[in-house]
Amino acid sequence: MANTFLTVEEIAQEALATLYETTPMHGLVHTDLTSEFGAKATGNTIDIRVPAVFHANRFNRGTGIVLQDATEGKIPVVLDKISDVSVPVTDEDMTLSIEDFKVQLLDPMMEAIAQDIDISLLGLRSGITQVAGFGTQAVADGQTWDKIEVLIEAGRLLDLKNVPKQGRNAVVGSTTNAKWLNSDLIKRADKSGSTAALREGSIGKNLFGFDAYQAGNIAQAASSPATGQPTTEVGVAFHETAFAFASAPLQLPAGANVGQVSVATHKGLSLRIAYGWDITKKQTVISADMLFGVKLLDANRAVLLKGANQA
Fold this sequence. Notes:
Blueprint: H1 8-21, E1 30-31, E2 41-42, E3 45-50, E4 73-78, E5 81-90, H2 98-122, E6 131-132, H3 136-141, H4 150-160, E7 168-172, H5 174-181, H6 184-191, E8 202-207, E9 210-214, E10 235-239, E11 243-248, E12 261-266, E13 269-278, E14 283-296, E15 302-305
Parallel strand pairs: 1-11, 6-15, 7-9
Antiparallel strand pairs: 2-3, 3-4, 5-14, 7-10, 8-9, 10-15, 11-14, 12-13, 13-14
């Protein structure tokens, strides 16, 4: 059946909506929204805003109140990554319906960029030194990596660093996820009729103070994991301000024809979609790309969840 092809603006909006829904880590970290309003950059570095921090003073009636500046902080993040997925679409492919175009092309393209974002954010684990999940005490307390109770120890470590309780998340791999889902705590949530927490990659909400999620990109191949241990699948429990993600709109290329390139931005994600006709091969090239950067803001606000043999 002949296809009424989507405009590039429609493709960009549709693709961005899909990307937003399929990028779990992006929604769990501090994300700067100034890119939606044209954030200023110096070279390839952008200053992202962080919330103002206040402290409580003891009131003295004689001296009166102490005023504090409501000044947001700024942290530089280098936008050094361009995630790109470019696909040729032949004349024959153009006969696909709009629904097939989304399912067969747009969704897989956005999934690839989503995985790139997740891998980049999860790569920041290399700067974290706090660990929970193994050791004699963990075994004695029943708080090893394979038990959801490991989040109790992670929470204790964050409490010691005065990390806010609101905004805590945990992300683990498929092996840990399977172990945790077998816990009585999660099973009771399922039997209660509240199964929303078990859908869309979410393991559970407010589990010992954390919202827990499973991410497929958390695992790395291991050569010889010990029996009963995951590979080098190192989970992480963290406050949302431990990590930062920033994206800025890529420019429309000079000389591009109207209707060939479009940029869509939403909640800190900025995606560029372009397509053009390749006369030599009688095909249309559809290209999606995103300029972004990630940064570890505070290692004290994150805890690794892993077994003794994990890297």
